[in-house]
Structure formats: structure tokens, C-alpha cells
Write a structure and sequence with these properties.
alpha/beta; Rossmann fold; 6-stranded mixed beta sheet; binds adenosine-5'-diphosphate
């Protein structure tokens, strides 16, 4: 019911007219339904008793039948409309919620499972709302008025009808539990299946998968996941089928019992012969309505309820409170600092960063070097506020940073994305609020012009073959990713291996240009190529999650340490 309330609120907010019209239509439907029962009884009485206004009753009956069909059609139309609207509203709310997640949440497989479950639950929301509306307004009202009628005729009838429906209630409980169990058992497999299908079909992976001749490998994984999911579904279905057979039997017995009770009541003289037809019509109608409500609507609402619960669990989960946002652009002397920071990934067994302390002033350039796996990328992400540290502090001008203080940092990822939009748009998304003139300046740099001239529609070329455009080379993509960072005038930039796909000599030129452009800002340059570390003010050497050396290139070359070892191992790249 709580979810029903939440969805009604969404529906009222986004489509007020339709949401109010539906209960009104339902009330009219109930009145027509009652009218039908009464008129049918009256017509039968007219025929049997040979008196009364047969033609008037018949004419009214025809009108009521027409009205009932019209009402049904209208209701279905507006239900569909509301259903689509609610699906849209819920999926938008979920999208907004997930967008607000701290980035560390996405590193947690359990949370990814929850997101996946919630996404698959969206479709059920509209149906759930509609079903409950039908039950609460149309069927609820109808049953209430019919109950009053039966109480007046003979309560025994009503007791028999309800008794026949009892097994259905148990069925709900069993179905609920097995559905919950099934979702828990299949959600991870479903995500795996998505991934393995992508490995075969998505453009990003397909080429490599073919070259590696790994299609059959992923196909086998897909089959395994599919049969696991199928088996779980089959188990749940088996359980439900057993109950369904029992429930069908109870319906049949119930119907026989109702006829028996009517005959018994007539013989006892508690119902007059003239009332038989009316009681019989009313009994069978209420019985079929209850059956429809239990078998159709309640069962449907009940099976959607679990899916809806998965959606609302994500929607209603409180997020960690954001501290007040810092005004980062007004200060000239900004300082970003880590103090005794340790960090471990969720599910990780040991700290990836250990007791890290460092300061970057605006206007200063720092290179973070070290072997693969030493923790450079993780440190960049903690510094940018993507991941909150386990221990220690991330400070902005001496004050604790709000998590995700993205305003103060522009981050160029090692595994940046090229989106299937135009080249210009791929750059524009770096900061959609940037004035046109700045965007033009970024697009008109010699670097970008060189790339654009080789493209069929210049800067308007779509960067994806999947959508009729082109693909850029790795080096070109990196230059676009760097240009994207130029869109935002941040006081700090973090570049994670920004030029790894560009050859070392060209890389030196590009980095000189880039650092020149960012002279006013603080820059943390993550690289395993020691050569470009010579261009910065200070170098930090990371080893197994600890800073083992810090200083300028000249200072570090005078020490016998990790830096000198790495530099000498790579020196032939720069000859
Ligand atoms: P570098 O950038 O120096 O290559 P990373 O920061 O990427 O190093 O990785 C440091 C360590 O953290 C590695 O042992 C890596 O396996 C681990 N790691 C990186 N990302 C994750 C993650 N999302 N979950 C768990 N462990 C991770």
C-alpha cells in the first residue's frame, strides 16, 4: 500500500487529469454493474410473474449493457495512458536517484545487483498501480454494495462464497516467498548474461572477441546463465502450479456449494421463488468478480509487488548527506590535500592506499608515477572525491571536502569514453555550461583542426560506426578526451595516463602544450611513463599503495631509489 501511495503521488503530479478520471469512471462502472444485476432480476421476474414493466426494464437493461461496454473501453484507454505515464515517471525518478549515487557504490557488486533488479522492476509499476486502482475503486465498491445485499438476503451465502476463496490466500503467501527467492538467485546471473551477450554483439567487444576466437566461450557462458535462470523460473512455476490446481478445485467445489445453498434456502423458505433468479445472478456475478479479483488482479498485483518493492528500495534509500558545496572558483590560492589517507575497495581484502599525505596548490603540477597496480588511479579518484577514504581526510583549503567535489576537479579518465554523438558534442559535454566562444576556441586548436579535417563531416561527424559515423584512433581519442577537459575551467585537473596511446616523443610535445594551457591550475598527472614526469614541479613515487619518494626530477635522480630505477629502465623510449 505504501508503494501504491507513492505511485499515486507521482501519477497525480505528472498526469493529474487522467489520475482523477479513472476512479470516477470506476464508480460509474460499479453503478452500471449494480444496475445490470438488479435489472436482470427485474426482467426475469417480469417474465416469470407476467407483470411489471417488462419493456421499460428491457430497454434500461440494453442501455446499461451499452454503457458498461463503453465504460470498459474508456477505462482501458485511460489505464493504458496512466500506465505509460507512471512507467516514465518511475524510470525518471530511478535515473535521478542512481545519478546521485556516490561513485563508490558502483564498485559494489551487491549494489549493482540491486540497481539491475530495480531496473527490471520498472515495467511492473504501471500494472501494479492499475491493478490496485481496480481493486480499490471498482471491485472494492462493487463488493461492498453486494455484501450489503447478501447480508440482507442471507449471510450464509456470503460465508460460502468467501470460504471457497480461502486457498487462494495461501497461494499468495507461497508465491510471494518463491518469487523473492527466485529474484535473489537470478539477478547476478542476469547481469553476467548481459555482459556475455555484449561480449559477442556489442561493437566495443565484438571485434576482439572474434579475433580471440572466443565467441564460443561467451556463447557457452550465455547458455549456462540462461539455463540457470530457466531452471529457477521453472522451480517457482512448479510450486505455483500445484497451488493453482488446488485453487481451481476449491473454486469448483465453491460453485457447487453455492447452488446447494440457494436450493436449501428456497426449501427453507428463506428465499421466495420470485427472488431465485435475482439471487442466482447476484451470487454468480459476485462469485466471478471475487474470483477475477483474486485470480486476476490480486495475483497480478502480488507478483508485481515484489518487482515494485525492488524499485522503491532503491528510490527510498537515503544517500549519504552532502556537505555544503564549496565555492571553488573564487579563491585564487586553492589547496587540495590528502592527510593520512587509507583506502580499500568494497570486497577488497587489503588497503590499496596506505597512509597517503600530499598537498597540491593551485598553479602547481605534480606527477604521480609508479608501476602498474601501485595505486595511482585509485589515489587520483580519492583525491577527486569519487571515493571517500576509509581513514584520513580529503581537504579543500583546509576544510573537509564534500564527497564528489567534482566542481573543483576536472578528471580525464584512463578509460575515458567516446560517445556515439558528434565530435563537437563529445567535447562539449566536458562542460555544457561553457560559453560558445570558449567551445569554439577549444574546437579550433590546431590539434582539433587536424583531427576534424580527416573526418567526413568535420566536427559534426558521429564518433561511432554503429551509427553511421567513424571511429577515431586511440591517439585521436585521447586528444579529444584532453580537449574535453579544456571545456571546464577548473582549479584542479587530474589526468590519468592521458597520453598512453600516443608515442612517447609526440607525447612530450602534447604534455608541454597541455601543461602550458593549465598554468593557472593545479595538475596531478598520473603516468607510468617517467619521461613526462620531468615536466612537472614535483614527483611522487607510489609503490604498493605508499608514497616512497617525493621531489623534483633532479632531486630524485640523485637518490638511489625506485624513481631512478624506473627512469633508467625507460630511458631508451626518449632517445
Ligand atoms: P595503478 O593505477 O597504479 O595501475 P590502481 O589504482 O588501478 O593502480 O590499482 C591498485 C590496486 O587496486 C590493484 O591491486 C587493483 O587490482 C586494485 N583495484 C583497482 N580497482 C579496483 C576495484 N574497482 N575493485 C577492487 N580492486 C581494485
Amino acid at each position: 500500500m505504501r508503494y501504491f501511495g507513492r505511485m499515486m503521488k507521482l501519477s497525480l503530479r505528472d498526469q493529474t487529469g487522467v489520475t482523477l478520471l479513472i476512479p470516477a469512471l470506476n464508480i460509474v462502472q460499479v453503478l452500471l454493474e449494480l444496475g445490470y444485476t438488479m435489472l436482470f432480476g427485474a426482467v426475469t421476474n417480469d417474465v416469470v410473474g407476467g407483470q411489471g414493466n417488462l419493456y421499460v426494464h428491457l430497454a434500461l437493461l440494453v442501455l446499461v449493457l451499452i454503457g458498461r461496454d463503453l465504460g470498459n473501453g474508456l477505462s482501458n484507454y485511460y489505464f493504458d495512458k496512466q500506465n505509460m505515464g507512471v512507467t516514465r515517471s518511475v524510470s525518471h525518478a530511478l535515473f535521478e536517484k542512481i545519478q546521485g549515487y556516490p561513485l563508490l557504490y558502483f564498485e559494489d557488486p551487491k549494489r549493482r545487483d540491486r540497481i539491475n533488479s530495480a531496473q527490471t522492476g520498472i515495467e511492473a509499476c504501471g500494472a501494479y498501480l492499475m491493478t490496485l486502482e481496480v481493486i480499490l475503486s471498482f471491485q472494492g465498491l462493487y463488493l461492498l454494495s453486494m455484501s450489503a445485499y447478501f447480508m440482507a438476503v442471507d449471510p450464509l451465502l456470503f460465508v460460502v462464497i468467501l470460504g471457497a476463496l480461502l486457498p487462494e490466500l495461501f497461494r499468495f503467501r507461497v508465491k510471494n516467498r518463491s518469487q523473492e527467492q527466485m529474484e535473489q538467485n537470478i539477478v547476478t546471473q542476469r547481469r553476467r548474461l548481459d555482459h556475455d551477450e555484449q561480449a559477442i554483439y556489442a561493437q566495443k567487444f565484438a571485434k576482439e572477441t572474434r579475433v580471440l576466437e572466443a565467441v564460443s566461450f561467451f556463447e557457452a557462458r550465455c547458455q549456462a546463465a540462461l539455463s540457470h535462470i530457466k531452471q529457477e523460473r521453472r522451480q517457482a512455476l512448479h510450486k505455483d502450479t500445484k497451488w493453482s490446481i488446488l485453487v481451481q478445485c476449491s473454486y469448483l467445489l465453491g460453485f457447487i456449494a453455492i447452488i446447494g445453498v440457494v436450493i436449501f434456502l428456497v426449501m427453507q423458505g428463506r428465499i421466495g421463488v420470485g427472488e431465485i433468479s435475482m439471487v442466482m445472478v447476484a451470487t454468480t456475478t459476485i462469485y466471478s468478480t471475487l474470483r477475477e479479483m483474486f485470480e486476476g488482479h490480486l495475483l497480478q498485483a502480488d507478483s508485481s509487488r515484489y518487482a515494485v518493492k525492488l524499485v522503491f528500495e532503491v528510490l527510498e534509500e537515503p544517500l549519504p548527506a552532502d556537505d555544503e558545496e564549496e565555492n571553488v572558483k573564487t579563491e585564487t590560492e586553492n589547496v587540495l590535500e590528502l592527510r593520512h589517507v587509507s583506502f580499500r575497495y568494497p570486497e577488497g581484502t587489503e588497503d590499496v592506499l596506505k597512509e597517503i599525505s600530499l598537498r597540491i596548490r593551485q598553479g602547481e603540477t605534480i606527477a604521480l608515477v609508479g608501476e602498474n597496480g601501485s595505486g595511482k588511479t585509485t589515489l587520483g579518484k580519492v583525491l577527486a572525491g569519487f571515493y571517500p577514504p576509509e581513514q584520513g581526510d580529503v581537504l579543500w583549503n583546509g576544510k573537509q571536502c564534500a564527497e564528489g567535489h567534482l566542481q573543483s576537479c576536472s578528471y580525464v579518465f584512463q578509460d575515458y569514453n567516446m560517445y556515439a554523438v558528434s565530435l563537437a558534442e563529445n567535447i562539449r559535454i566536458g562542460d555544457l555550461t561553457t560559453p560558445k566562444a570558449r567551445e569554439r576556441a577549444v574546437l579550433d586548436t590546431p590539434e582539433m583542426r587536424e583531427i576534424c579535417t580527416g573526418l567526413p563531416q568535420g566536427e559534426n561527424t558521429i564518433i561511432s560506426k554503429e551509427f553511421g559515423g567513424v571511429e577515431l584512433s586511440g591517439g585521436q581519442e585521447q586528444r579529444v578526451a584532453i580537449a574535453r577537459s579544456d571545456m571546464k575551467q577548473a582549479p584542479f585537473y587530474i589526468f590519468d595516463e592521458p597520453t598512453a596511446a600516443i608515442d612517447p616523443m609526440r607525447e612530450m610535445d602534447l604534455m608541454k602544450q597541455m601543461l602550458g594551457k593549465k598554468r593557472q591550475a593545479g595538475v596531478l598527472l598520473i603516468t607510468h611513463r617517467i619521461g613526462i614526469a620531468t615536466l612537472v614541479d614535483q614527483i611522487l613515487v607510489l609503490k604498493e599503495g605508499r608514497i616512497v619518494q617525493r621531489g623534483s626530477h633532479q632531486e630524485l635522480m640523485r637518490e638511489e631509489g625506485e624513481y631512478k630505477r624506473l627512469f633508467e629502465a625507460q630511458s631508451q623510449w626518449y632517445q
